[in-house]
Amino acid sequence: MTISIKNNQTIPIQSIPVLKYEDFLSVNLSLLQDASSHCVNYYGLFEAGIIKLICCIANDSDHTVLISSSEIIGGENIYPSFTAQHFSFHIFERELHENFGIRYNDHPWLKPVRYPYDHANQESLISNYPFYQIHSEELHEVGVGPIHAGIIEPGHFRFICSGEQIIHLEIQLGYQHRGIEQLFIHKKKLLQRISLAESIAGDSVAGHTTAFINLWESLCNYHPSEELQFSRTLAMELERIAIHTGDLSGICTDIAYQLGSAVFGRLRTPIINFFQSWCGNRLAKGLLRVVKNNYYFNEKLGLELENILDSFESDYIEMWNKFHELPSILARLEKTGVLTTEAAASIGVVGMIAKASGIKRDIRNSHPHDYYTQLKHEPVIKHHGDVYSRTQIRNEEIRQSISYIRNMIQTIPIRNNAEESIGPLQKNSFTLSLAEGWRGEICHCAVTDDNGELIHYKIKDPSMHNWLGLALAVRNNEISDFPICNKSFNLSYCGHDL
Questions:
Q1: Which domain holds residue 420?
Q2: Are residues 109 and 194 in the same domain?
Q3: What are 376-409's pLDDT values in tens digits?
Q4: Are residues 107 and 196 in the same domain?
Q5: Has residue 122 been placed in a domain?
Q6: What's the structural domain count of the chain?
Q7: pTM of the predicted protein model
Q8: Vertex 469: Cα angle to 158 and 384 (nearest 5)
């Protein structure tokens, strides 16, 4: 009752089984009884007045994704929800309700997600978001944002507190929209679409662009060369080092450890500056392209990168050793912002947040692509789910990425100077691409019509799964600990809002 595919595999859209909604619900919920399975995407698209639902359940142990679909009519019809039986579906069904007006009879938390311009209920305004409230003379509310004093993007945090203790946090997003998914349809040039992928989230250029490129090449039945796979993997691991190091600086800032803030902040700079040397942009924009590579990674760049890593690693290790041995730092990080394994599993968190809570969820291991098929990546797992576990994940992944890069640049693939060409998009097809960005699991899906034109594009940033995790992690913490909890998650606003 499902079709099994691999990561970056294109299939005819007609090959996806169409189930009655009740069977669709029971089949996908039954798949999640296996702890190694989770939902990587669940969304809808209009087809001749019918809402076609597509659900994608990844099985991490056998490296497959199981796809099924159902066709329903919105309006006055009311349906049982997936969320009532497995809360990890909450964000997907809330989006379906917002976009299409699908009604559920048992969804426990059917609140707005993004406020897109064409959402079904135009009376639903961001100004009257239905915050959860507790009426009590002993409790008070604290509102933070949407405009913040720092450089972060707009988002509103509404705390219910008992004195300094957080009882409940609700996070309201949806303040910024670029209509990214629709722009993938309206923009017809490949370069325009790649530029869109690079702009989904400014701190995940390599991650989202790699997902788009792999999807597009799969739709065109093109198999990338070793050189292209090398560059994409190298860029993703460099991006991981840069952002993780910058996050360590931010964590130090939030606990007033000035030395760590300064040193980790400085160490991020040579990594992103290397992107400038490689492709002319510090965020890696312009580096990754479909079929071709405008900026070949040669031996000279390999030597430059090796020298940068030598200098980085010695200073980094010295700073980390000072950082994690200070009792005053450990007192702020340990047992702060705990997201238990049970809570993490129930809401379906991914990436670094899942791994810090004892859940092995990493696309580089479970659904590898590009050079990851050769690296044999083994995820770093921690079990306490606190700020310190999330900090340790960053530290160990930085060192792991350095090791991968050192091994990779020992044997740089030979450049293919031949002019490569790519065919048209396959007609009436569906493709899914998964990539492990530094933040976690990225998923792009696409559908083409009988003319081979792109008619639907769906993006899922890992932040979609993980924002609720932050809200749960801060409960029973002091409100003064919120900044450090927030930074330890470091989720994306624009990646959520799109």
A1: 180-497
A2: no
A3: 999 999 999 999 999 999 999 999 999 999 999 9
A4: no
A5: no
A6: 2
A7: 0.96
A8: 125
